Amino acid sequence: MHQVFNTPSKVIITCNKRLSPYLELEVKNLGFKPVRIFSTGLELKVSLNDCIRLNLNLRCASQVLYSLQEFDAENGEELYQKVTAIAWEKLIDFGGYFSVTSNVDNSTITTPLFANLKVKDAIADRIKSVHKIRPNSGPDYTKTVVHLYWKNEKAEIFLDTSGETLAKHSYRKIPGKAPMLEALAASTILATQWDFKSPFINPMCGSGTLAIEAALIATGRTPGLLRMNYGFMHILGYEEEVFFTERRRLKDQVVKNQDLKIIATDISEDAIDISKKNAKTAGVDQLIEFYACDFADTRIPQDEAGIIMFNPEYGERLGVHSKLEATYARIGDFMKKECKGYTGYIFTGNPDLAKKIGLRASRRIEFYNGKLDCRLLEYELYDGSRRTLS
Predict the structure, then answer these.
(1) Which UniProt keywords apply (predicted)?
(2) In the chain, which stretches have pLDDT less than 50?
(3) Both 131 and 200 in a single domain?
(4) Which end of the chain is more exposed for a tag (fewer CB within 10 A), N or C?
(5) 82 and 195 inside one domain
(6) Residues contacting residue 206 through CB under 8 Å, at least 6 positions apart
(7) What is the model's pLDDT at position 2?
(8) Does 22 fall in a domain?
(9) Contact residues for 252 (Cβ-Cβ < 8 A; gap 6+)
(10) Quick one: 189 and 118 in the same domain?
(11) What is the three-class DSSP state of 104?
(12) In this structure, what DSSP letter does residue 203 have?
């Protein structure tokens, strides 16, 4: 059963809200042409084998969903009948394991769990009718994953070729406090239009995500080099040579011996210890200089201008507001006095605190961190820049 791996179909690549411009950039750089782009992803027409390549390369994505069938379904019983009609015995091993995820907005369904159960029963009943054995199913996303999209009476069934989310890049074994999602961190770095050669400075680095993503992007190390299990591996017809060929290509494209200057600092020695361990797991610990110090003591290379990027606390879950006001004011002073010639970035979800920076932002790039409306504020740090309240 190799047909599904070579047959182009609608593919939806999802991402967190506001990350689609950076996802689009990645997809186009891989040579694919999006059919349409929306706030939480984009659509392609490609094969399952193409999905293997997408899964291994994308930094900003969440799931890569391969469409099997679209149909009308008014209620749960109609959904069951239509899903049962799909030849699941040609896609899922009867001795295997599968799980179901869904995005449901149908007036007859009070809980998505009910819709998931209908899909699970339909798949299992279809396979049992052919093989006389019912496959196992459950909540784990480590084997075959089937996704249901159901809005009003329009339903669509996908194979989730990713399984576990792509938004986590498999190196952060120790997350630290209030960590930034890896896909979000990668997107904010792409938003800076950093040249991947000049210095990248990350004070208040926390668990090191921004510095690690910067090192991974600059050296062409893709998330696929850190992960060995995907949803596509558990679909009948999968040929592991396609996966390993792409993986070898990714290994060969890694830029070695690059003269990078990435510096990450944090006042917490525990945070620096966590960052070093995460960087080692990611394979970039030799590319990042880590120091335990107050952000204002971060050494800023002056031989060439680069990027300095802060992701300070913003008073949602951590910290005390009045204390943070003083911190934001200090960040502004530090950038103005010590980072001349650099481009400064502060990622924050608190516009009131942002005003304490005391510099005028040249760009305000919109993001979400979870459900929190955030901005990546850009500052051109010219020599003698005038202090103005934003």
Answers:
(1) Methyltransferase, RNA-binding, Transferase
(2) 1, 317-319, 385-390
(3) no
(4) N
(5) no
(6) 176, 177, 178, 179, 180, 266, 271, 275, 311
(7) 52
(8) yes
(9) none
(10) no
(11) strand
(12) S
User: Do residues 206 and 80 share a domain?
Assistant: no
Residue 141 within a domain: yes
Q: Between 269-282 and 209-218, two packed helices, what is the crossing angle to 10 degrees?
A: 30
CATH number where 303 lies: 3.40.50.150
- Please indicate, yes or no, whether residues 155 and 187 belong to a single structural domain of this protein: no
Report helix, strand or coil for 109.
Answer: coil
Residues 145 and 109 sit within 8 Å (Cβ to Cβ): no
The CATH number covering residue 34 comes to 3.30.2130.30
- Give the number of other CB atoms < 10 A from CB of residue 228: 10
Q: Which of 307, 352, 353, 314 is nearest to 211 (CA)?
A: 307
Q: pLDDT value at position 277?
A: 96
Full domain range(s) for residue 116: 9-160
DSSP state, residue 39: T
For residues 197, 249, 185 and 47, what is the CA-based torsion angle, rounded to 10 degrees?
140
Q: Judge contact between 65 and 80, C-beta under 8 A.
A: no
Q: Are residues 127 and 28 part of one domain?
A: yes
d(CA 66, CA 69): 9
Nearest in space to 132 (alpha carbons), one of 189, 174, 89: 89
| Number of domains the chain contains | 2
Q: Centre a 10 Å sphere on the Cβ of residue 19 and count the other Cβ atoms it contains.
A: 28
Looking at residue 177, its pLDDT comes to 74
Q: Residue 306: its pLDDT value, please?
A: 96
| Model pLDDT, residue 384 | 54
> DSSP readout, 276-314?
HHHHHHHT-GGGEEEEES-GGG-----SS--EEEE----
- Same domain (yes/no): 136, 281: no
